[in-house]
Write a structure and sequence with these properties.
This protein folds into 2 domains: 83 residues, Nucleotidyltransferase, domain 5; 170 residues, no CATH class. It has 12 helices and 8 strands. It is elongated, with a radius of gyration of 22 Å.
Length: 279
């Protein structure tokens, strides 16, 4: 018997809209379709749904789509575009995040002895090695993360969110090995939980930063929380090493990044075109 996946996607969309009361992100809808498929013992994904966004795009008589730069697509049943308005423009265009240098200081796992220090006089972060001497006057060491800590934060997220059993099992499985964070990141994306994870992690890091500031009598600065979404993420490297193009290769630089660091890097279009033209 041939399976009508359009009807299944429509059913998943209606159920998710009834639950959310607004337009549905593509990843969340795909996760809802997978849940229905599993309940009916259907193999998922079928060939036509391997590229889910393309499947939605090729059925404009069934679905209306809002494409968002830097965000997941939003999907509603055809003719119900008023549901797009339920997703606020602030949610579309902005995302609260910890300022890049502070975010790296709170999350980067570095195998060496360098540690992040905050310099109140310049409102900046430096990665310093004790063997290079005492840190600058008035500088305060920031709480440094570890692989164990990063996994613990993700376990707390698993315990906190009210998702489907399928999503919880997938995330729990991704954390079993404790080897790297790639499996967790993939589980978050495939189960449509990117927004939930971002919100949880932001709140966790913001509270950690506030506690650190209070403990060390460091004045809180509003610009530590950035409200605009950057057009491109820039990698920040430990110890603020000056990288000479003549002496350092990109391989050396990227060797200090983990899978999640790499996923946050965007390459400007002009660089991509330059690389293509050089082939």
């Amino acid at each position: 018997m041939q399976i009508d996946w359009i009807d299944i996607v429509k059913e998943a969309l209606d159920l998710t809209i009834a639950d959310l009361g607004k337009a549905v992100p593509g990843a969340k809808l795909r996760a809802a379709v997978a849940k229905i498929a599993k309940s009916r013992n259907l193999d998922f994904p079928p060939p036509e749904l391997k590229k889910f966004a393309d499947f939605i795009r090729l059925n404009p008589q069934v679905f209306d789509v809002k494409w968002r730069r830097g965000h997941d697509i939003l999907i509603v049943p055809q003719g119900r575009t008023e549901l797009f308005d339920s997703v606020t423009s602030e949610r579309d265009d902005f995302a609260k995040r910890i300022r890049e240098d502070l975010f790296d200081a709170l999350t980067k796992v570095f195998s060496g002895k360098k540690a992040p220090f905050y310099l109140p006089t310049t409102d900046s972060v430096s990665w310093l090695d004790p063997k290079d001497g005492a840190p600058p006057a008035l500088s305060v060491q920031l709480p440094q993360s570890s692989k164990e800590n990063e996994f613990e934060v993700r376990r707390k997220f698993l315990m906190s969110f009210d998702g489907s059993d399928t999503s919880k099992v997938a995330i729990a499985k991704s954390l079993e090995t404790g080897a790297d964070l790639k499996a967790f990141t993939e589980a978050i994306h495939s189960n449509g939980l990117s927004e939930e994870w971002h919100t949880f992690r932001f709140e966790y890091l913001a509270e950690k930063l506030k506690s650190w500031a209070e403990k060390h009598n460091v004045a809180w600065r509003d610009d530590w929380i950035v409200n605009e979404r950057p057009s491109a993420q820039t990698a920040t490297f430990p110890a603020q090493v000056t990288v000479s193009a003549e002496k350092k290769s990109l391989v050396d630089i990227f060797s200090v990044l983990n899978e999640e660091d790499l996923s946050r890097i965007s390459v400007p279009l002009d660089i991509v075109l330059k690389l293509i033209s050089s082939k």
